[in-house]
Write a structure and sequence with these properties.
Elements: E1 3-7, E2 12-15, E3 18-21, E4 27-31, E5 37-39, H1 52-65, H2 70-87, H3 92-103, H4 107-147
Antiparallel strand pairs: 1-4, 2-3, 2-5
Helix pairs in contact: 1-2, 1-4, 3-4
């Protein structure tokens, strides 16, 4: 089944490892054969890999876009994924689904699912941040109570 792509002016995409930019008017393409295609909004750069889930995404993206380095990138992808699941077991169901797609050479579908992993990681980080802030407030209150100090400055 052909893939129809709307390619807006100024947009970039990667097709089989080649970066293509539309420098003219909007265009429409139909891709008739199997190709590795990523739109600019789906591309993650090495500089953007600041979290464990983003490193997983980037390694899988590289395996998808650069078939000549596929096995090397899939090895890194699996290492990152296994380490991440060990550290955050709640991601195992998503990771298993991603692994199934990768094992069946459906890298693009695996890549799309990895976006769920990134979103889950973001929620976990936000929850952790909230719990740390709550703990800090409780600790501050306990320390203030132990020393007899109030959290508010005395009124003048």
């Amino acid at each position: 089944m052909p893939l129809k792509i709307d390619f807006k002016s100024g947009d970039k995409m990667i097709i089989n490892g080649a970066v293509i930019e539309n420098v003219g008017a909007n265009a429409k393409f139909i891709i008739h054969n199997e190709s590795a295609i990523l739109r600019e909004k789906e591309v993650l750069t090495d500089a953007d890999t600041a979290t464990p889930a983003s490193r997983i995404y980037f390694a899988l993206q590289c395996a998808y876009v650069f078939p000549h380095q596929k096995e090397e990138n899939l090895k890194r992808f699996r290492e990152f994924l296994y380490d991440f699941v060990a550290a955050c077991p709640s991601t195992k169901p998503i990771a298993d689904e991603i692994e199934e797609h990768v094992a069946n050479n459906r890298l693009y579908k695996g890549l799309k699912l990895t976006q769920k992993l990134v979103a889950h990681e973001s929620k976990v980080f936000a929850q952790l941040q909230s719990e740390m802030e709550k703990y800090a407030r409780e600790l501050e209150a306990a320390e203030s109570g132990a020393t007899g100090e109030s959290a508010q400055p005395p009124a003048k």
